[in-house]
Amino acid sequence: MEILVCARRVPDTSENEITLNSAGNDIERDELVYSVNEPDNYAVEEALQIAARIGGNVTVVTVGGEDDEEILRREMAMGANHGVLITDEAFSGSDGLGIATILKAFVEKGNYDLILTGVQAEDGGAQVGGMLAAMLDYPFASLVNSIEVLEGRKLKISREIAGGDKEMNEIDLPCVLSIQTGINEPRYVGMRGIRAVASVPIPTYGASELAVDPRSVGGAAARVKRVDYFLPALGKGAEMLEGSREEVIDRLVGLVAAKGGLK
Amino acid sequence: MPRIFAYIAHKGGVADDSAAELAAVAKKIDAAATLTAVVMGWGAELDSVCNAVRGSYAEVWKIANESLVYPNAELVRKALVKVLPAGGVVLVTHEHFGIDLAPGLSIKLKAAFVSDVLEIEGVEDAQLKVVRQEFGGQVSAHVRCDISSGAVVTIRPGAFKPLESTPVSGSVNDKSADVGVLTASRRYLQTMVAESGDVDITKHNVLVSIGRGIQEKDNVAIAQELADAMGGALSCSRPVVDAKWLDKSRQVGSSGKTVKPKVYLACGISGAFQHLVGIKGNPFIVAINKNPKAPIFQVADVGIVDDLLEFLPELTNKIREMHGVSAK
Ligand SMILES: Cc1cc2nc3c(=O)[nH]c(=O)nc-3n(C[C@H](O)[C@H](O)[C@H](O)COP(=O)(O)OP(=O)(O)OC[C@H]3O[C@@H](n4cnc5c(N)ncnc54)[C@H](O)[C@@H]3O)c2cc1C
To answer: Is the domain of B75 the same as that of B17?
Structure first.
């Protein structure tokens, strides 16, 4: 099975506290730690496990810039066969639709049976996978938390719905699935693994190689634009307990006891 | 102004709570709008849903189709594409079904798409001005969406105050004939209900809840000890379950359990909305987090900025002392 995973490099929210910059219109980008978007990493692991079970190849693709190569190498160190960087000046400022348009052009150059994305990235958009599927006229399922390959070019998948219930579906190949965290346990990647793939060439594609009309993507074509970041005016907010740890604990125990929180 | 449509999610003949929230959103986009609810499904229960939303929507489009007996997003999308006029604004609730339906629907309608909207700040020159959150709610963003050729907008559940329903009731138009036969390349099989675990966190008055801030599996024990000392139970956020440190049955949130404790201690939990929607009944929330700007402090009653790995054991000792158990 030929599997394509669309992945993205994002500021890692488990490593950074995201705050506003001093101008108050963007996030503070100095000293941010980046990593592969968490659900995308689960998607790569799932692709590798499927390929190991039934055979096949895993390609990881990202739309971005030079800096984004690092996540491709990381996923190749996990075992992905190929990494592909899609990059072009004309692509910068693309909205979700723009990214899906670019990915569609790349997908059409290959012959993929299964395309995986993460459920959402740090912007919480949860959009590119569903858009890409609709553009390709492939079936789509979101929030996928298990995949079983069936006979006759079909998969049996479960989707995570409310309350942790699972919605079981059968879906025809080729298809696009957005992968939810927790579907597997992504393997560990050490420095050694990354070094081993450090010199593997990573092919790049731009607008002309993909035959994407530059006017259909990028900032100028984007119908959805972020104007700025801000911190909303706080509501009442928590009463912050301050002082020595001992004092804080004394006050906390009193408050909790008053609410019936101590047996 | 474009026409505004709301897709009404429903189950067992009952419209989802978000139906009245979507009506409120539509009024914020255009106070003068004639709102249209789209209700799809099959059987007698469809009529009760249509009836229930007539208070908030001037028009209700009923679409009965046997293949929609279960809301398979692919079939729903195909049906919507057949009935919706071009250029409208379509509102969908941002939960597991909306996430499945909405992005692809926007492509087929050739409409713009913006997801998980928390606030509407009006329309100016065909630009819908909305507020979203990024980075798990750590920052908000002003976003503009060009609605000149229509838009599909998903709305965060609970973010808008429901529109009060009026005694005036909307008309129900049966549009089923416009839909015809629907086929899908994804077929719904069955729903598997989540397994219940060893501890039922929905029945406890006191929950000590841990998030990614617990850092390692071995640290889970310090939170368990606190829960034991308080006579409560241990619950958690999603990353703790993803890492397999606790069972899924302990997870609080939209894809986990809805809990109604009296006291909720959020330890090393940032306060993402998918977590917060699982906490109901207005409990006394204590947040312990090393990041003073963590969003959890906006919803907590009491906040403590500290390292939980040091704070929790000391709190446990204090409570044990009070109970006359000698501290370790
Ligand atoms: C469709 C969908 C459904 C979801 N369903 C759920 C759900 O049901 N439940 C759920 O919880 N999430 C759910 N999520 C995930 C959710 O969006 C968040 O990613 C998640 O809640 C974050 O968990 P967290 O707060 O533990 O981790 P983080 O956001 O990483 O926060 C960790 C916090 O710990 C603090 N911290 C770190 N170290 C320490 C320390 N030593 N002492 C004190 N504080 C420390 C940090 O400052 C940070 O605030 C869902 C997501 C999606 C897309």
So the answer is: yes
Query: Could you give the count of Cα atoms lying within 13 Å of A258 in the half-sphere of its Cβ?
Result: 7
Is B311–A13 a contact, with Cβ atoms under 8 angstroms apart?
no
Best residue for ligand 1 mutational test, from B273, B274, B286, B309 (most atoms within 8 Å of Cβ):
B274
Tens of pLDDT, residue by residue over A7-28, are 999 999 888 889 899 998 899 9
Domain ranges of chain A: 2-221
Q: Are residues B169 and B74 in the same domain?
A: yes
Residues 22-41 of A with CB under 8 A from B: 27
* Higher-pLDDT residue of A93, A235: A93
Nearest to A13 among B72, B116, B138 (CB): B138
In chain B, the number of structural domains is: 2
| Residues A125, B284: C-beta atoms closer than 8 Å | no
Q: Chains A and B: how many Cβ contacts under 8 Å?
A: 265
Do B91 and B205 lie in one domain? The reply is no
Domain coverage including residue B124: 4-179
Do residues B146 and B255 share a domain? no
Question: Does any domain span residue B113?
Answer: yes
- Judgement on whether residues B36 and B142 belong to the same structural domain of the protein: yes
Residue B23 shares a structural domain with residue B122: yes
* CA neighbor of A93 nearest in space, from A207, A224, A229: A224
CATH of the domain spanning A2-221: 3.40.50.620
Distance CA A223, CA A96 (A): 9
The answer as to whether B189 is a domain residue is: no
- The reply to whether residue A134 touches residue B103, judged by beta carbons under 8 angstroms, is yes
CA distance B36 to B113: 19
CATH number of domain containing B98: 3.40.50.620
CATH number at residue B244: 3.40.50.1220
Residue that finishes a domain, picked among B144, B179, B214:
B179
Please give chain B's pLDDT, 328 residues, in tens: 899 999 999 999 999 999 999 999 999 999 999 899 999 999 999 999 999 999 999 999 999 999 999 999 999 999 999 999 999 999 999 999 999 999 999 999 999 999 999 999 999 999 999 999 999 999 999 999 999 999 999 999 999 999 988 877 899 999 999 999 999 999 999 999 998 889 999 999 999 999 999 999 999 999 999 999 999 999 999 999 999 999 999 999 999 999 999 999 999 999 999 999 999 999 999 999 999 999 999 999 999 999 999 999 999 999 999 988 654 4
pLDDT value for A134: 98
Mean pLDDT, rounded, of chain B: 95
Q: Do B96 and A143 touch (CB under 8 A)?
A: yes
**Surface of A (54-83) touching B: CB under 8 A:** none
Which chain B residues are Cβ-neighbours of A250 within 8 angstroms? 318
- Encode B135-169: b = buried (16+ Cβ within 10 Å), e = exposed: bbbbbbbbbbbbbeebbbbbbbbebbeebebeeee
Residue B237 CA to ligand 1 centre (angstroms): 6
A154-160 sheet: strands from edge to edge: A204-205, A82-86, A57-63, A2-6, A114-118, A175-179, A140-150, A154-160, A166-172, B186-192
B300 touches chain A (CB under 8 A): yes
- Ligand 1 atom with least separation from CA of A39: 53
Of A142, A162, A235, the CB nearest to B254: A162
Assigned domain for B195 exists: no
Residue nearest to atom 50 of ligand 1 (CA): B274
Read off the pTM. 0.96
